[in-house]
Amino acid sequence: MRTRSAKSIVACVSESLILVLLIAGASAAQKKRVPPGGNLAVVADERLAALRTAPSLSGRLMRRLGRGRIVSIRGSSRGRDGLLFFHVAVTRRTFGWIQSEALVASGRQGDDRRLAHLISGADEFDRVARARIFLDTFPGSSLRPKVLLLLGDAAEEAAAKLSRESERRFERREIPTDGAPEFSYFLNYNGLDRYNRQGVIFIFDKAKKQFHYDGAAWREIVRRYPNTSEAVEARKRVQALHASNP
Fold first, then answer.
1. Domain ranges in the chain?
2. pTM value > 0.85
3. Which of 29-38, 109-118, 146-155, 164-173 has the weakest average pLDDT?
4. Listed residue (149, 119, 129, 122) closest to 218, CA to CA
């Protein structure tokens, strides 16, 4: 049996690596792809995001769209019940009708205020996810300091909950003393994953076995909006964070 040369092995590995990179690149491009034409909008309230065949709540359900999904608005119609529906493109081949309140758009007056109100009434992760949509969609809104403060506070509340959950989990499943460091198990806890995808990072107090939000949103308020009332609160939170994590 002939042995493959080192050169051919390297060539084979290189080809495999190129293939992996091409697949990864195609996957990333697909995630960033937006539907063509029209005015772009984002699903902010997934509870109302039913895509239907007609501009009516009795229209046949085609699918439900997830929070953060980008659509292209092609038209609008008001139903018999008074609700406004948008005709949207989800992909090049998928079109349907969706209740207007499910969406926010940077060019639609009042959408930033409506989304900011939604952020105030949600649980920790919902607040973080909707705040991220707000910050991506409304870069010039005067409500950005308020939303950044909401994001940071939601993340710190989530940190307390994640601390309790992870400690209970690792109490039940003994961590080997001769393996990876204990703190690395906590920082690999899968409860952190969905926050990480939203750009929220947590730091870990090894002695107390507690997570804390790293404070990025609070620092952004202090840096970019120093003369706002939110900056006063943000400075207090940054100082408290430094005191608890010297």
1. 39-104, 111-244
2. no
3. 29-38
4. 149
